[in-house]
Give the backbone structure.
Amino acid sequence: MAYELYYWPNIQGRGEFVRLALAEADAPYVDVARERGTRALTALWEAEDVEHPPFAPPFLKDGKKLIGQTANILLYLGDKEGLAPKNEVGRLWVNQIQLTIADLVSEAHDTHHPIGSDLYYEDQKPEALKRAQEFRKGRIAQLLGWFETILARNPKGDSFLVGARLTYADTSLFQVIEGLSYAFPKAMKRELRKAPRVVALRDRVAARPRIKAYLQSARRIPFNEQGIFRHYPELDG
Amino acid sequence: MAYELYYWPNIQGRGEFVRLALAEADAPYVDVARERGTRALTALWEAEDVEHPPFAPPFLKDGKKLIGQTANILLYLGDKEGLAPKNEVGRLWVNQIQLTIADLVSEAHDTHHPIGSDLYYEDQKPEALKRAQEFRKGRIAQLLGWFETILARNPKGDSFLVGARLTYADTSLFQVIEGLSYAFPKAMKRELRKAPRVVALRDRVAARPRIKAYLQSARRIPFNEQGIFRHYPELDG
């Protein structure tokens, strides 16, 4: 039976980490809000007979199982679809990397929404200018440096973040690099020069046949200014 | 062999979620930076021969295993110390709740640091006043409402978040309620009136013999204005 992915229909957002994992696994799925309307998403989200109600999208339905929180969905898919090592130490390491990526994603979001998600960007622009500057000047380099280090120390070589095979940490890092490059093209051009292993990994993931086909398909929503990674030129530099 | 917990010595911070789980499990551990100095923490953090370097504290050493990211450490301890269900659906649900708590913790931190962690609070106070207002007016009620719902829908009753026994999701929710009540006493007094199940759970966790002993011991660092939950009266209301 096909998975059901519940996420907003007009953005990549956090759902994209799940979409990429499903694409790489060649796993059939219904992108519920896009194929059946957003009401199909809110109906399940708000249903009063759901034992494990998610706090927010994305959530994934697999038969009777309903699983929320991006990193948790990926932990599940990693095991089921062979996108993570089978041994405990490897699984936890992939999860640890994914959680660090999740922190980075939240920080990237807050560059344009430093005061509150319920307010418009235009209503928090002065604060966004300050926060984006802090993010560009410190966090991007720090985090890219950490990924470089991980790749350099992988005893199986620097082709993948963990071990000798692709895991969902790799597809997630690909997505973050793409997103940050969309949002902060100037800053990322500068910072990626110091992260050659990360660049090579991004290219390696992009060239995977299933990922390549997904990226060229109508299923891949283009980046836009409703998502997490937004290109506001005034926030770049 | 005792666990080694690596975390900042002067704050509860994210390390406290691990300390509480270890206390409830009655698991021996060394609080490394407190017992051996902060240099023992930075030495391992920065060591160049570590295969799985953590991005930031807390991290836990268990023999040769080194595990970072709070939710990931708890996932590990949940299995090993019997603080999570053994079945997959239950384990994932506990992890999902913990990840939602982690999001809430980051948001609570950002009420006093909306622009950047590397700046002082005093240098981002106008922005903090705005962000704290958004947090108090929307997110606290939303999140407490979610925890109430989970407790109400637990088929095993509302004594614990998941199933009929305590899990690390319960000790973590206790900690968040304590932290928010310290940081925002006025707002929380108002909001907790609408969350009687959450209040009862907090009291139930606080009364667990091992938790009670831990909270009364010197190991429990008092809340302070260097941690995640800070009491700045101007941010409450």
In short: The interface with chain B takes residues 50-55, 65, 67-69, 71-72, 75-76, 89, 92-93, 95-96, 99-100, 103, 106, 110, 114-116, 118-119, 124, 127, 130-131, 134-135, 138, 143, 146, 149-150, 153-155 of chain A (CB under 8 Å). Residues 88-208 of chain A form a domain with the Glutathione S-transferase Yfyf (Class Pi); Chain A, domain 2 fold (CATH 1.20.1050.10). Strands of chain A lie at 3-6, 29-31, 59-62, 65-68.
